[in-house]
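So, can you check this record?

>
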Amino acid sequence: MSAYPPEPWDLHGHAYVGVWLLPRDRTPAPHSPATKVVTIFGRAIVCAGLFVYEEPSPLTYNEIMSTVLVREGWRLRVSITHIWVDSEASRDGGRALWAIPKDLADFDVVPHTSYAAQGIGSLAVKRVRRLPWALPIRFRIAQDREGSLLVSPVKGRIRFGRALGRWAFAADGPIGFLAGRKPLLTLASRPFRLIFGTG
């Protein structure tokens, strides 16, 4: 097992996140069966994100993930359904600390221009309009750990923006449920700081 830092992880970098409204029967199942998918007129809120973690993060790596908005009772949570990184330490730490099902993938990244995870998905960025200030953010992820619900906090500050770009997903790949679908919008986060976990 690779060495990984203890929680919390003080993460810095930039990201692009697409937001889709998917029919319930096209939506990936939450990672934990103790949560329920949130729907709006029969559609679920599904996101795909490409993240680049940079110095002074405790680990530097690339990441692609998909998430779905869920609820634990009436409390909103984020369920990470699929996720890949190019760091063994990040993979092992994510699994051990927060039950995040990280796997490894190969990435090809040209910052703020193009992002690709081999066999999974990609984004070509055309233009970004950023807000002039950073905003606080706080949420909790809900994951399954050996049949029990594990809820972990995330907080930080993000400078949001609206991005124009082209998402593409392998139709026969693990995020194929988004293949051929245009997002409702794509958010840019340049930069972000996220405190992941407790300590």
User: Anything to note?
Assistant: The radius of gyration is 16 Å. The chain has a mean pLDDT of 96.
